[in-house]
Specification:
By secondary structure, this protein is an alpha+beta fold. 37% of the residues lie in helices and 22% in strands. It has a two-stranded antiparallel sheet with strand order 1-2. The longest helix is centred in the N-terminal third of the chain and has 24 residues. It is elongated. The N and C termini lie far apart (67 Å). The model has no long low-confidence stretch (mean pLDDT 86).
């Protein structure tokens, strides 16, 4: 075996891996029954997006329809509508 590898290092890595796997399983189990996204409806969601890299950035507002059909229509090319 090489000099950098030792049993304590291996056991520490194994313990960290086990803790991470247990934590992931607990998070998945707790969020399993929670709904994702938002309910369909009328109107729009307004999303404010701000980005700053330290040297400058951008700011914008996006409107996303709550109606799934209206949302899907936005991805159809103008020549196919």
């Amino acid at each position: 075996m090489s000099t950098w590898f030792s049993l304590p290092v291996f056991l520490l890595c194994l313990a960290i891996l086990i803790v991470l796997l247990v934590r992931a399983a607990l998070v998945i189990r707790s969020e399993k029954d929670k709904g994702r996204g938002s309910l369909p409806g009328t109107g729009d969601h307004v999303i404010d997006a701000n980005y700053n890299s330290g040297l400058g950035g951008q700011e914008g507002t996006f409107r996303v329809p709550k109606d799934p059909d209206a949302y899907a229509r936005r991805f159809v090319p103008k020549g196919r509508r």
